[in-house]
Prior knowledge:
This protein is mostly helical. It has helices at about 5-30, 40-90, 100-115, 120-150, 155-180, 185-205, 210-235, 245-255.
Amino acid sequence: MTRLYQAELVCLAAFAGMCLTAYAGFYVARRSQKQDEPPTEIFSTVSGAVFALLGLLVAFTFHGAYSRYEHRRQLIRQEVDAIRTVAAYLDLLPAAAQPQLRTRLAVYAQSRTAYYVKLINPTEAVREKDRANTIQAELWREALAAVRAQADDVTGTLLLPAVNDLARIASERSVTIRAHIPATIWFFLLGVALVCAGLAGYRAGVAGRASKFYLVLFALVMAAVLYLILDIEYPRFGLINLDEANRNLEALAETLAR
């Protein structure tokens, strides 16, 4: 089961849970109070505080998810720039040393492109990441040997740090891909959403009207917001993705391979 389907199931379960909780609150209110009895001040205070907490949690999780999404997009852009920089600095080497290094760099770019595509399969993604790391290590050794053979300090000062940046950015991307909102926060957010649904149902029960449309609408909107946050949090698996950014890396890999 992919993470996309897991997100859909979680949101469907949240929607059903909020609907059930809302109707449970409604029937509890109908049984415990008179229909014409207005809500007490303490009820309004508590419900207002809980709904405010829900809004705060939604804003916090959405901001965190979008920040990570934007950071991942920027890292792909940085990787494209880093590979392009290495390709430019290869011109400083003797003509005889360039073809092998350019071929190695093109294979590395292709491997990094394939890594993004294979993220949907964790086993294949790990294998591709290890392959890219091996290619990068070979690129480093060959670049180091070429610089030493040329005995040019300027070329080494420019080329070697640029090659090293490839490993740094790849490592940072791997860490960022695994960085997500802690499960505890997700459970707490779902719990507060269920409590808010119950309070909304209770308020409807006290007022003597089921307000089914509004209770279902609240549950539907909350489930949609949760799905949006999950979609941004895992941009490779849902409607929101980083395909456009990765296409830039793919285009660069094709250019280097020519």
